[in-house]
C-alpha cells in the first residue's frame, strides 16, 4: 500500500547519506598556478562523451576527476580561467583512493563557496557512483510496478497525494541524474 513512497524515501535518504559521507571527507587546498600541472584528456570509458581532469603537483600528489562532456557538471569548470589564474583552489578527498590518487571534487581560480561545493558533490556522485545511487530507484520501479498501472486503486485522497508526491520525487531524481 505505502511501499512506493517508502522506497522513494529510501532512494533519497541513500543519496543524501552518500553526499553527507563525501562532504565529511573533504578538504580545501590551494596552490600557486606554477606549482600544478592540469591535464585534460578524453576518457577511455565513454570516449567523446566524457573527459578526465588530472592535476599534478610538484610534490607528486595527483588529483583526478571525470566529467561528462554534455552535462551540467561540465559548466562548473573553466579551464581557460584556470590556466591564467595566479592560484588554483581545489576541493579534494581527505584520503587517497585505491589508485593512490586523491579524488578531485571541485577546482576553481577562487575559493569555492559551500553551495558550489554541494552542487559539485552532487555532480561527482552522479558521475562516479551512478550504479550505486540508482540501485534503490531501480528496485523501487521494479517492486512497485503496480503503482504505475492505470487501474491502480487509491485508498483515499491522502493516499493519492502521497503516491503523486512519490512520482514527483522519483521524476526529480531521474532529472537530476539526466542533467548532471
Structural notes for this entry:
With 180 residues, the chain is α+β, with helices and mostly antiparallel strands. The protein contains 5 helices and 6 strands, in the order H-E-E-E-E-H-E-E-H-H-H. The chain has helices spanning 3-24, 79-84, 114-128, 130-143, 157-179, and strands at residues 26-32, 36-43, 47-57, 62-68, 87-96, 102-108. The protein has a 6-stranded mixed sheet. It starts with a helix and ends with a helix. The model has no long low-confidence stretch (mean pLDDT 87).
Task: Please give the structural blueprint.
Layout: H1 3-24, E1 26-32, E2 36-43, E3 47-57, E4 62-68, H2 79-84, E5 87-96, E6 102-108, H3 114-128, H4 130-143, H5 157-179
Parallel strand pairs: 4-6
Antiparallel strand pairs: 1-5, 2-3, 3-4, 5-6
Helix pairs in contact: 1-3, 1-4, 1-5
Amino acid at each position: 500500500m505505502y511501499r512506493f513512497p517508502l522506497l522513494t524515501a529510501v532512494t533519497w535518504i541513500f543519496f543524501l547519506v552518500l553526499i553527507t559521507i563525501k562532504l565529511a571527507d573533504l578538504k580545501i587546498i590551494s596552490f600557486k598556478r606554477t606549482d600544478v600541472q592540469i591535464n585534460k584528456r578524453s576518457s577511455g570509458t565513454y570516449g567523446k562523451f566524457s573527459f578526465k581532469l588530472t592535476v599534478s603537483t610538484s610534490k607528486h600528489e595527483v588529483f583526478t576527476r571525470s566529467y561528462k562532456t554534455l552535462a551540467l557538471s561540465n559548466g562548473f569548470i573553466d579551464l581557460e580561467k584556470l590556466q591564467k589564474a595566479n592560484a588554483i583552489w581545489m576541493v579534494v578527498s581527505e584520503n587517497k583512493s585505491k589508485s593512490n590518487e586523491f579524488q578531485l571534487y571541485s577546482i576553481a581560480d577562487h575559493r569555492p563557496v559551500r553551495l558550489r561545493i554541494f552542487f559539485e558533490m552532487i555532480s561527482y556522485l552522479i558521475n562516479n557512483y551512478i550504479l550505486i545511487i540508482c540501485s534503490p530507484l531501480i528496485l523501487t520501479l521494479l517492486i512497485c510496478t503496480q503503482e504505475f498501472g492505470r487501474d491502480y486503486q487509491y485508498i483515499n485522497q491522502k493516499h493519492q497525494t502521497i503516491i503523486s508526491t512519490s512520482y514527483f520525487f522519483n521524476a526529480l531524481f531521474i532529472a537530476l541524474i539526466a542533467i548532471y
